[in-house]
Design a protein that fits this description.
Elements: H1 5-58, H2 65-78, E1 83-87, E2 93-96, H3 107-117, E3 120-125, E4 132-142, E5 145-155, H4 157-207, H5 221-269, H6 276-307, E6 315-319, H7 320-337, E7 341-346, E8 352-356, H8 357-373, E9 380-387, E10 391-398, H9 405-408, H10 428-438, E11 442-448, E12 452-460
Parallel strand pairs: 7-9
Antiparallel strand pairs: 1-2, 1-5, 3-4, 4-5, 6-8, 9-10, 10-12, 11-12
Length: 471
């Protein structure tokens, strides 16, 4: 049998049903046997009491039990259909209607039952009979004194035959029920496994990259939910695939532009007639475009390392206020050139932190550069720094274009650019997000179209290195 989930279910159900049926049949057979044996015992006991009453009426027990056996023994044979024995008070056999020479009954148990209950019953297998025997012993009394014991016995052959017949019926019914249950279990297992097989086929299609495969969740609620989750996963994969393809297209375009410029100027500068002024302009453009290429390549490498957790933090203690001041001075020439207002706002004179200076610089240069790109001439870019005790809050605020509401939840995702043409590769903010998470910090975006954007970053003053930060 193939080791499929359906077969496992069928086998499990069948085993449970088989164990249940066997338990029920054992209990049924035991109950049937107990019923027939109890019925045979009660019948014999009632008959024994009737016979003993008859003996009291027609036999004179005043002459002693041994004389009764000698004088009236025939009466015991005549008025008893089964085996009858007369015992004295010591348990010695005085009379046996089938000619036994000694008694086979457990005397100790018999006397104990007679003393406590007034009668004795048992079911035993004796050597003188091929079938089990039911035994009933009653005391023989004369003037309220026990003078002997009368033992009545009947064969249980008829009861055993009835028990055997009933057992066969019960076993037959049990077998029929079991076979029907196995068939029902197989059908039920098939119904259960059918939606799972559909999910398996669906996952195979997804694994092969066939994202056009359409799946309609069916079956129990759990498989429906799993199917809906897989559909959601498929939709997300398609979205990420589209974003990835767009990213590749954008990166290719971003790389092609400076390369085309560099190649064009290299071809121009090769001409011997090129004057000095044009040569200098060309070399300046080649240098800027080379720097731009290098920056894009470095961003891609950094992003790859961050995603694969192959970044080693170099933690040092430094003054965050001075650190932000240095970045402010770095961007002031650009602010003057582009005619934009840029400044740092803080109430703190010094804020000592332990962090990775280079990674932190990468965060704020990305955010400030992003703010400059989306802020028009005469606009304002502000870096607001606040001391929060064991944490610091840095807000990069601009009054530029703002971010559409539908894009706010996605701008930190990998490769996401939105619809604006001012974004380039779409990984700058993703790098920021990865570094902030590496520092165990948080980043929040508050923005409104036409009103500007605020990137609010909260970082611990002391960054702890975890295993994921090690190369």
């Amino acid at each position: 049998m193939r080791k499929s989930f359906r077969n496992y279910l069928t086998l499990t159900f069948s085993l449970v049903i088989l164990v249940t049926i066997v338990a029920i049949e054992i209990a049924s057979v035991y109950s049937i046997k107990r019923y027939f044996y109890a019925d045979a015992t009660n019948k014999l006991k009632n008959q024994a009491e009737v016979n003993l009453g008859f003996y009291y009426r027609y036999i004179d027990f005043s002459k002693g039990l041994e004389n009764v056996v000698f004088d009236d023994g025939f009466t015991f044979y005549q008025y008893n259909s089964g085996h009858l024995e007369l015992l004295d008070l010591d348990g010695n056999l005085l009379l046996s209607t089938i000619g036994l020479t000694h008694n086979y009954i457990d005397k100790q148990e018999m006397f104990k039952a007679l003393n406590t209950d007034g009668f004795y019953t048992s079911i035993d297998k004796f050597s003188y009979n091929s079938s089990k025997m039911v035994t009933v012993a009653l005391p023989i009394k004369y003037q309220d004194n026990v003078i002997g014991i009368c033992v009545f016995q009947n064969s249980l052959a008829e009861a055993d035959n009835a028990i055997l017949e009933m057992t066969r019926i019960v076993l037959t019914i049990g077998l029929i029920v079991f076979l029907a249950s196995v068939a029902i279990s197989y059908v039920a297992s098939t119904l259960i496994v059918k939606p799972i097989n559909k999910l398996r086929d669906y996952s195979d299609q997804l694994a092969k990259g066939n994202y056009n495969y359409q799946y309609k969740p069916t079956g129990p609620e759990e498989t429906k939910q799993l199917g809906e989750s897989m559909n959601y996963m498929r939709d997300e994969i398609l979205k990420r695939e589209a974003v990835k393809n767009e990213f590749i297209s954008n990166v290719s375009h971003e790389l092609r532009t400076p390369l085309t410029s560099i190649k064009g100027w290299a071809y121009t500068l090769r001409d011997e007639s090129t004057d000095r002024e044009l040569l200098n302009d060309g070399l300046d453009i080649i240098e800027k475009e080379s720097d731009r290429l290098a920056q894009m390549v470095n961003d891609l490498l950094d992003f790859s390392r961050l995603l694969n957790k192959r970044v080693k933090l170099e933690l040092k203690k430094f003054d965050l206020v001075k650190f932000i001041r240095d970045i402010e001075n770095q961007f002031k020439p650009r602010a003057i050139t582009e005619n934009k207002n840029f400044y740092l706002s803080t109430d703190a004179k010094t804020i000592e932190i332990v962090s990775d200076k280079d990674k932190l610089r990468q965060v704020f240069i990305n955010l400030i550069d992003n703010a400059f790109k989306f802020t028009e001439e005469n606009g304002t870019i502000k870096v607001d720094l606040r001391d929060l005790g064991d944490k610091v809050q840095i807000c990069v605020v601009d009054d530029g274009d703002g971010i559409p509401a539908k894009d706010i939840d996605h701008v930190l995702e990998k490769f996401y650019r939105g619809e604006t043409k001012k974004s380039h590769t779409g990984i700058g903010l993703s790098i920021v997000n990865e570094i902030v998470q590496m520092f165990n910090g948080t980043i929040k975006i508050v923005s409104e179209v036409g009103q500007g954007t605020s990137f609010i970053i909260v970082l611990p003053k002391i960054v702890e290195i975890s295993e994921s930060h090690e190369e």
